[in-house]
Structure prediction request, 429 residues.
Amino acid sequence: MRRVVVTGLGAITPLGVGIRRTWARLIAGDCGITSTAHLEPQERWRELPSRVAGMIPRGRKEEGGWQASEWLNKGDERRMATFTQFAIAATEMALQDANWRPSTQQEKETTGVCLGSGIGNLEELYNTSITYEKTGYKKVSPLFVPQLLINLGAGHISMKYGLQGPNHATTTACTTGAHAIGDASRFIAFGDADVMVAGGSESCIHPLALAGFSRSKSLATLYNDDPSSSSRPFDRDRCGFVIGEGTGVVVLEELEHARARGANIYAEVRGYGCSGDAHHMTAPLENGHGALLAMKRALKHAGIPPRDVDYINAHATSTPLGDAAENAAIQSLMLGEDGVDTASSVTVSSTKGAVGHLLGAAGAIEAIFSILATKENIMPPTRNLHGLEAGFNFNYIPGQAQERRIGVSLSNSFGFGGTNACLAFSKCR
Prediction:
C-alpha cells in the first residue's frame, strides 16, 4: 500500500483559533475551560449540575478569537451549521499550511474530504423543534435538514474547494475525528485519492447537551467554582469529563506526491486500528480490552512493536472508569509481548485538562497534538494531575511539558457504543 503523510494542520480549540496558538498555549500549560454560568438563558445554565465547558474564545482572529464573518460571507454563514463553519475555517488553515490549492481537474478529482461530527447541529434541532411545536410547518426553515446532516460539513468543504475525490463523513461519537483521519489515510493508501482533507468538528455547548450528559452521570460537577481544575485526567480526584467545542483538520497526502511538490511533512501515518467493546452503551470494559485491541491493530498495521512507542496521547477524559480502563489497556500493551520492562519508561499524557472533551472533534485535535509532538520532540502535559491511585505507574507528564526524541506516537480515541480507534504516527524516513 502507498505511504501516507501529514502536510497541513488546522485547528480551532478552547485555547484559541489556529494550531500554532493552540499548541503554544497547550505546551505552556494554559487552560481553555471556563464557566457557563454567564450564558443565556442563565436560569437554564445555572440549574445544571455541571457548569463548566471548553468554549472557543470569541473575538478577532488576530487575537486568537472566533468570528464567523472573518471566515465566511453572510450567505454561507446563514446556510451552515456552526460545526460546519468551524470546519470550513480549519480546512482553510490546513490547506494554507500544506500549500495545496488543487486547480486542475486531475488535482480536484484526486483530492477528497473525510470529516465528521459526533452531535452536529443540536442547537438548530432544539430551536426548530420548539418553533414547530408553537407555530407549525410554515416556520420551519428550508435550511433545517441541510444544516442538520452531519455529512454537510464534508459537503461544504468539497463544494468550496471543488474537491471531487472521496466525499465521506464519520459519526462515531467521541471516536469520530480519529476514524475520519484513519479512514482518509486508507483512501490514499488504496489509491482512491492522492490528498485528503480529514478531521472532526463539534459545536454543542448547549444546556440540553449538558443536561443529557449530566443525567448520565458523565460530567464533572465538583469544580464549578474553579473551571480550570475541573478536567483531571488520571488524577485520583477526577469526577467526570468537561464538554468542549472545536475542530481539528489535517491534510493527508501520498508520500511521493508530497515529495514531488516539495511539501513540508509533519509526520507519517503509520498505523490505524479499530475495535468494538461489544459490552455497554456508555461504559468501557474494565480491563480495557477493546482499547487494547485498537492499539494492537494500529501497531500491527504499522509493523512497529510496543517497545518502540515513545509517547501515547491518551483518550483519558477524566472519568473514574474510563481512565482506569485505558490505563489497564496501555499497561497490557506496553508491558506485554515486545514491550518495555518497566512502567516508569512508558510516557502518556491527556490533553483534555487543557481543552476539555471535544467529542467528535477530540480524536482529530488529539491526533494533531500527537503529530506535533512527533515533529517537534515535545510532549504536552497532563493538567491537574496531583495524585495517583494504585496501578497508575506511568510517566503521565504532570504539569509541565517534557522534551525527548519521539520516533513513534499513538493517539487513542474511544466512544459511546464501545467504538475504539488508535492512530500511529512516526517521523517520516
Notes: The chain has a mean pLDDT of 97. The domain at 4-260 is CATH 3.40.47.10 (Peroxisomal Thiolase; Chain A, domain 1).
